Amino acid sequence: MCFICDFKTQPDDAAKASAHASPRWQARRAFMLAAGATAAGSALAQVDVGSSSGLRKLVPAETLETSARQQYSQVLADARAKGALAPDGHPQLQRLQTIAQKLIPHTAQWNPRSREWKWQVNLIGSQQINAWCMPGGKIAFYTGILDKLKLTDDEAAMIMGHEMAHALREHARERLAKSQATSIGLSIASQLLGLGSLGDVAANLGTQLLTLKYSRDDETESDLVGLEIAARGGYKPEASVSLWQKMQSASSNGSPSFLSTHPSGANRIQELEANLPKVQTLYEQALKG
Q1: What is residue 40's predicted lDDT score, i.e. its pLDDT?
Q2: DSSP bridge partners of 85
Q3: Beta partners for 123?
Q4: For residue 149, what are the domain limits?
Q5: Which member of 53, 154, 182, 208 has the lowest number of beta carbons within 10 Å of its beta carbon?
Q6: Judging by beta carbons within 10 Å of its beta carbon (0-12, 13-18, 19+), is residue 42 exposed, middle or buried?
């Protein structure tokens, strides 16, 4: 179950309610405050991934995030109906929540919009080796990726950081803009004059957000941005390498769902290894607190 609940009170009511809030609510409220905050005194980005593609602006971010919320709710509803949605208090879900709480404060420098996102993390019981983050910070892990790969917390943080990075760098928004602008023959110039067509596409995605395949550049960006976010959160940078070594091993024994949209490879590991020194100091600073 989602561990960020809706607290539907007006500002004045919220202040009164907080005095009588249960410890459980107080813990959730603390998480939301942490999620909305940026890390104090954070240094400039240490990995170099360049600027995001301007093409993504052809698809309204708000429209895409609304569609993502709807699709995420449907995924959770389907999992709940099958008895596959982890309840509050599930040890693996709590583990993921703790990781998210450490990573989210370091996301805003990559996308200022993320300060307004209502981040959610859920765990779905499935043998699939899979995890994802939709636009707007909607995260899901499948039990298969935790259990079959026997992920350490550091490795799980690398996956979460990587998936967060796809959302922060708005890769889905960019992919959608490119594919739809091409398929329906719309020029960039015409779309700058009126975003209606692509806006309609973003509002009617169906299940496309779960099946998007990112480019090699997208994957590299997410690897490096996720590496830095995880390091700032206090997770060992070297875990990014051991994670993808495990992924390579898993791919040799089949075709995990995760690898259908996140191809593994030696070049990927080499790129991560080359960037470990850039984030090592961030990791060490995080440990000092």
Answers
A1: 39
A2: 124
A3: 141
A4: 52-288
A5: 182
A6: middle
Angle between helices 216-232 and 266-288 (to 10 degrees): 20
Q: Identify whether 250 is part of a domain.
A: yes
Residues 6+ apart with CB under 8 A from 18: 26, 29
Residue among 46, 21, 24, 148 nearest 97 (CA): 24
- Nearest-angstrom CA–CA distance, 161 and 178: 25
Looking at the 3D structure of the chain, how many domains does it have?
1
Query: What whole-number distance in Å separates Cα of residue 256 and Cα of residue 129?
Result: 5
For the stretch 169-186, pLDDT in tens is 999 888 877 766 554 444
For range 116-124, the mean pLDDT: 97
238 within domain boundaries: yes
pLDDT of residue 26: 46
Backbone angles phi, psi at 134, to 5 degrees: -80, 165
Angle at 117 between CA 176 and CA 13, to 5 degrees: 145
Q: Residue 165 and residue 168: Cα distance in Å, rounded?
A: 5
- Between CA 136 and CA 116 the distance in angstroms is 9
Lowest mean pLDDT among 113-117, 180-184, 199-203: 199-203
Q: Residue 47: which region, alpha, beta or left (left: phi > 0; alpha: psi -120 to 50)? A: beta
Residue 22 lies in a domain: no
Q: Which residues are within 8 A (CB) of 152 and not within 5 positions of it... i.e. 6 or more apart?
A: 239, 242
Q: By C-alpha distance, which of 155, 125, 120 is closest to 230?
A: 155
State the CB neighbour count (10 A cutoff) for residue 122: 21
Higher pLDDT, 93 or 253: 93
Say if 152 falls within a structural domain: yes
Q: What is the pTM of this model?
A: 0.77
Alpha carbons 274 and 283: distance in angstroms, whole number: 16
Percent of the chain with pLDDT over 90: 54
pLDDT in tens, 241-257: 999 999 888 876 655 55
